[in-house]
Amino acid sequence: MTAPRTATGPVPKKRRGGRPGGGELLAAAVGAVPGGAARPGQQQMAEAIERSVATGEHLLVQAGTGTGKSLAYLAPALTVDGPVVVSTATLALQSQLVDHDLPRLADAVEPVLGRRPTFAVLKGRHHYLCLARLDSSVEEEPEDALFDAPRPAGGKWLGEAGRLGKQMQRLRDWAEKTATGDRDELDPGVDDQVWRSISMPARECVGATRCPFGQECFAEASRARAREADIVVTNHSLLAVDMIAGRHIVPPHKLLVVDEAHELADRVSSAAQAELEPQLIDRSARRARPLLRPEVAERLTEAGDALAVGLAEAPAGRLTAGLPPALREACTLLDAATRAALEAIGDVKADDPDPVRKQQAKAVLDELSKTAQRLLEEADHDVAWVEKPENGSRRALVVAPLSVAGTLATHLYDERTVVATSATLALGGRFDTVARALGLDAPPPAPPSPAAAALATAAAAGRAGTTPPVASTDGSRAAIGTVPATEGPGWTSLDVGSPFDYARQGILYVAAHLPRPSVSGLPEAAGEELLALVGALGGRTLGLFSSRRAAQQAAELLRARTDLPVLLQGEEALPLLVRRFREERESCLFGVMSLWQGVDVPGDACQLVVIDRLPFPRPDEPLAAARAAAVDAGGGSGFAAVSVPIAAVRLAQGVGRLIRATGDRGVVAVLDSRLETARGYGSFLRRSLPPFWYTTRPDVARGALERLGKS
Radius of gyration over alpha carbons of the chain, in Å? Predict the structure, then answer.
């Protein structure tokens, strides 16, 4: 078992005045779970959060799979006055909290608290039905409303129009009876373009006081419920928008818990990203045309045409030498056209005949104007690139911040205590890399203490105090997994370990004998290794691949040379594929990046996780490339500072698919020899992973899989 890393003192169960503390609430919650038992890491995390609330010190907590971290932060959250905000990166975790953890916690602690705690979900405004849009959509022509969205070349056809029209009618029927207007309650759902026609992005909203439906607004009602709740669950994207917009969306609070915190910086970067697309300019021109003189509207259309020409001429990728002349001309035309249009429309007034539609037109034009100006500025702190997906679905000119650490440092921590938690916060065995990405001042790495060095040496020699699941031989040893606490000005960190005994439950096998991967796709030698491993187990394999091409080649190989059922991402809906993978014992599921985090298959349905190569960012990923180039220009190593940490997080997430419960057993096989042979970063990546028993011997891995296959 991976023990908690840092000893902490006890926290009294009762506060002064008899008010229950987080420990007592956690005990009540755990006791209400059938078969529930105290987990040391969970208790330690809850105690650390209570101390942070008391001291105001921010906290980074690495909590491995199986810790029960949700209850560990929800229980002490109920000791805080006023709302506590919990932010998640994925809908899966948000649903788990709202549908399972919070109702169960409320039931369990009601006798202890003497009242039933309340909770609410806060989503972006566009996630709720807008009655004003629904009302105005009755009068709009289909071209300006329902079909006012990107669509396949060739336009809409009658069958598609009929299908979308039926969805629209179902939405109207639902609008008559829904109490929340929340899209997630609409079952079955509707296409995105249908939903866009009756929802309202925040930038286009006139506000409740000026909207004729303000008193009935579903989005405003959700905010009101959030202000009164004990715990508010939101998502990283909305949290990012709240920070950038001045912290007026999420209700005031003293404690913010950021779960899945390794995703936060990317979500903030996405929120600060802007883009120009010819279709968007065309739609904004059509929407604003009734409010403009013909010559002003025509200038918008000309700017959109100029952007389309510039994008057609420019190659995809990062713009390292500034805007090409054609794109610069398009941005200049767009800036002038949007300014003229905004001046012509004027202010939204209370006596306007249609303030909602006027505000919508103004909001889109204003965003286009600001984006054009931002691109023309070519600031050092921004990165611009041309986006052209391989399927040709869209072309866009995109701009995003080079770094969001400053934004986080300024807006994330002010006037609240922040607890950031994840199973992957300590990269390379330290918290400082993630701390800096989250805007915290982190000290430079220090030499390991004698005790830590001795423990690492013992682990590397296979003498870590646990019996390996295979014979300890040359090339086999217990993986290193100790994470010491790190702290900086105003923050500290904690690794509470995991209840799983990784060194006994699983093997990390690195195929060090394979050639270094050099070509795209699945190399022949890696394919043969994959066949041998999957064959030894008899299926039950989750394949995580670096590209769609590699996943397809792997699927074709196994289908041609085995009788095993092979499920390939993209051939069916992902939830259906995952369900089949769970139910069909000999099946294999192969896919790309969305599988690295989105699959939870405990038990013997998944006993082999294969990773074809280390998940470094591709050279054509604009933001990663720009950030690495900036570090290189400053005299550092962009690869070490940017690419390696990205790969560490992705790899840890992928490896974490194997052990999901205390009874799980299996092997993680990495078919990239660099994880063992790369002197500069191989050990850093290994220290970022759970402490599996480690081997580079193929016979050891195959032998373990054969034994699992017979069990």
Answer: 27
The pTM is what?
0.86
Q: Please determine, for residue 13, whether its predicted confidence score (pLDDT) is greater than 70.
A: no
Q: How far is it, in rounded angstroms, from Cα 711 to Cα 709?
A: 6
- Listed in order, strand segments (DSSP E) in 310-354 are 317-318
Contacts of 702 (CB under 8 A, 6+ apart): 532, 533, 536
* pLDDT reported for residue 159: 58
Q: What's the distance, CA 369 to chain centroid?
A: 29
Q: Among all chains, which residue has been given the structure tokens 């990390």? A: 508
One-letter amino acid for residue 23 of the chain: G
Structure tokens at 510: 């690195």
Which structure tokens are listed for 196? 């866009």
Backbone dihedral angles phi then psi of residue 662, each to the nearest 5 degrees: -65, -20
Long-range CB pairs of 136-139 (<8 Å, 24+ gap) are 136/354, 136/356, 136/357, 137/168, 137/197, 137/198
**Residue 657: count of CB within 10 angstroms of its CB:** 22
pLDDT of 237-249, one tens digit each?
999 999 998 888 9
Residue 679, phi then psi, degrees to nearest 5: -70, -40
User: Helices marked H in 229-288 — which ranges?
Assistant: 236-244, 264-271, 278-288
Q: Which two tokens stand for residue 406?
A: 């400053």
Note whether 614 and 510 are within 8 A (CB). Answer: no
Three-state SS at 125: helix
Structure tokens at 80: 């805080």
Query: Token digits for 254?
Result: 């003293």
Alpha-carbon distance 700 to 204, whole Å?
61
Q: Give phi and psi for 505, each to the nearest 5.
A: -90, -20
Contact 86, 73 (CB under 8 A): yes
Region for residue 207 given its phi and psi (left: phi exceeds 0; alpha: psi -120 to 50; beta: otherwise): left
